[in-house]
Amino acid sequence: MLKGDDLGTPHLRLERRGPIGWCVIDRPEARNAFTSRMYFGIRRAVDLVTKDPDLHALVITGVGDVFSPGGDLRLETHDADSASAEINIAELIGEDVVPWHTLRKARVPVISAVNGICQGGGLCLAMLSDVAVASDRATFRGPELLRGIVDSWYAAVMPKLIGVALTRDMMFTGRRLSAAEALQHGLVSRMVPHEELDAAAEQAAREVMQSAPEAREQFKRIVHGDFGVIDEATFFASLRGAEAREGTTAFAEKRAPNWVPEQYRKGRL
User: Fold this and answer.
1) What is the pLDDT of residue 2?
2) Is the torsion defined by CA of 166, 125, 143, 226 positive or negative?
3) Would you state the CATH architecture of domain 12-264?
4) pLDDT at 125
5) What is the pLDDT of residue 266?
6) Which of 177, 219, 258, 264 sees the fewest Cβ atoms within 10 Å?
7) How far is CA 88 from the centre of its chain?
8) 263, exposed or middle or buried, with CB in 10 Å at 0-12, 13-18, 19+?
9) Are the CB atoms for 204 and 149 separated by under 8 Å?
10) Helix H or strand E segment including 99
11) What's the pLDDT score for residue 94?
12) Average predicted confidence (pLDDT) for the chain
């Protein structure tokens, strides 16, 4: 039974700073990669802040030079915080684990303070936040198709933020955007010098809290409704498919997957 501000994993912590809850991703030994418990912990952080009358906004950030690279493809997820040789990407990103619906419907404003590398599930988290503030050192990437994963959340959300052409470029090639490019194209809405990131995230939260909660919630519902119905059936089916098994195994083995033409197999993307 989880109690108090426990988020269910030692790799996430909830800090109270005045009326703002800060969810800190703290797994530097794995570059802040998410385990299944960490994905679920993000959901719990939203719920805790939403239900606490003393908290009025949630900021999510990471330690070191990484926000999050997404799910940890090196872990077997029956015991999501311990290592094993087998990879089970379908369980790591299960329907009852990932926080995307929670973020999409969150009544409390959610601010992402993107402090560094942001890709995979980390990028999805930033895209579904109400405000994403990026350090000028941050980088952004969506490597799912390189791993054989059909991420329907990207397909629904990203084109609305940055347009179809850049979405295809990023997803088909694994192209990495700098913080300045992410700001230019609308993937984030604010960029600040790295040392000012926490203050800028707090400022964004303070500004959001000036708006009326119920009106803001309804406005958010209308905006997020433009994402439409997420084709999660295709997403979760792809996680169990042969391409995802090969893509995640190739990543763990630091090699190119077998669908890459042999003359281009120079290493892991």
Assistant:
1) 73
2) negative
3) Alpha-Beta Complex (3.90)
4) 98
5) 81
6) 264
7) 19
8) exposed
9) no
10) none
11) 62
12) 92
